[in-house]
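Researcher: Before we compare anything, I want clean individual predictions. No alignment, no superposition, just each chain on its own. First chain goes here; please echo the sequence and then give the structure tokens.
Model: Echoing the first chain and its structure:
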Amino acid sequence: MDRDHRHGHRGRLRERFNKVGRESLADYEMLELLLTYPIPRKDTGTTIKHFTGKMLAHYPVPIAPIEEQKSILQKLHESFESLKNTQEQISISLEKVNAMDQSILAKAFRGELVPQDPNDEPASQLLKRIKQEKASLESGKKNGARRGRAEKRL
């Protein structure tokens, strides 16, 4: 038994749109895709047992005139274009922020972020002092370790 040709229709629309883009769809297909895209279609039944598809087929479903559909589609295209532009601006802004972080870090290392106190010792002298203190601490540890071994021998 062959399935109804409509089975998987929206999936095929999505597939065609993802592969080829908007040009592959007629306006009414694009409208259908945009209006139903966020709604996964898992169940086609109702919660009322006697309320069937055949019964529903007897009721008219209002459809907007083609000009109104085109207008809606145009607004959707404009919204998507605006969204795309916004995303591009966000990406550009994030790149600028990352570059600014690097610039701020570089200025901090050069001492350019805050006014410098002329009474502060230069960084080169500070580094020398730190190295000397480190060397004296290390030599003190070595001497202490040697003294401890010598005391154990006695």
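Researcher: Okay. Second chain, same rules.
Model: Second chain and its structure:
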Amino acid sequence: MIYEFIFTQKTDFKISLLAKVCNVPLSSYYDWLKRRESIIKKHEADNLLKEQILEFYKKSRSNCGVPKMTEALKDNGVHLSRKKVAKLMVELVLKGTYGRKKMRTIIRDKSAILSPDLVNRNFTAKAPDELMVSDLTYISKKEGWLYLVVILDVCTRRILGTRKRTTFSGTAFHSDHGSQYTSGEFRAVLKASIKLHLTV
């Protein structure tokens, strides 16, 4: 570019002479020079902002999106629009991780009859099959929610899986008040097939 050429040669020749030789108005060169300085200052300012953004991003363990980043900068006296923050984060190739909506796992059935608390917060057992505890959780996957139920023998600390034995005499089965555990169908299976004492 002509103006860039004049700028690089100004140490060896007069700017007025360079402008005359290049056939450009001297005022146009100075206008370009002002724009160039403005662009440089903007880049320097953006680089400082990027350093701050990177610092906040690392502190958040890569869990800071545009809204959080905008607020974090604002709390530190840097007021930027979300659009500006988004632009800088794109240039830095930074993305916040957005967790999926949490699944509520304990949903009580108000009409269900609750079992007595036989454990009384004493989660110890002297022998296998004396006390079993269970919990249910949801696992988020791309295709949807997966359901996982775990039953633990308190004494042996083993997770019950496929077992040949289906009868547990005098065993207490402890769970939360979720409708999955208080449903009549679930109780019937435990009482008829496994013969457990329910406790919540």
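Researcher: What stands out in the second chain?
Model: The chain is about 40% helix and 15% strand. Additionally, The mean pLDDT is 79.
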